[in-house]
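Example for reference:
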Amino acid sequence: MTIAPGVTLRERKKDETRTRIAAAGRRLFATHGFERITVARIAAEAGVSAKTVFNYFPAKEGIFFAGRSPVEPGLLPAVCGRGEGESAYDAVRRFATRPATVTQAVRERSPGETVYDAIQRFQATGPAPVGVEVPDRETYARSPTLQAYVREEFAAQELALADLLRADAGSGPTDPVPTTVAAALLAPLRWRFMAALAGWPAAVGAAYDLLAPALADYARRS
């Protein structure tokens, strides 16, 4: 096997171990259900120790998702790194409706935006997700534990966004507005996750259009 440029043998072996553990877990989850499978059994299936499994996946839920969070990790950096004149709404909406390919980013660039700027923006945010990061929808639908894990991940992201907005707006801990705004801005992304699970169209632009009159100017950077 040829090693890709810049990837060391040690890194390749770590990636192979991670992939093997995730694959073993998914096979067992699909056959027996998420709740009934222990980390020790996954370790035996993958040919590693339980300690090795925990080194790669601190929680069993992480094995199901192959180490990827069901929430999109780039959203908070996009809000934190928004430019002058941009509101939190601008940053979240742009991130949530970002193009899936660089060609689309160039084709749909904003008025006055150069091709170079569009490419740079695409590279900064990454492509829009295609589908949803759930490898086995049937296993997920049968598992209260996995569903609770997803709710907790979205709740943690909402709290983090609220803290960021509170700092940007100079609000105190008793101000309910940052928490309310965070919940509203993330609601379309929560819906997109569930819609993709159900196989529904998952576009969220219309939802953000509806929020614009109330939130477009909140926490705008001067």
Summary: Residues 100 and 127 are 5 Å apart (CA to CA).
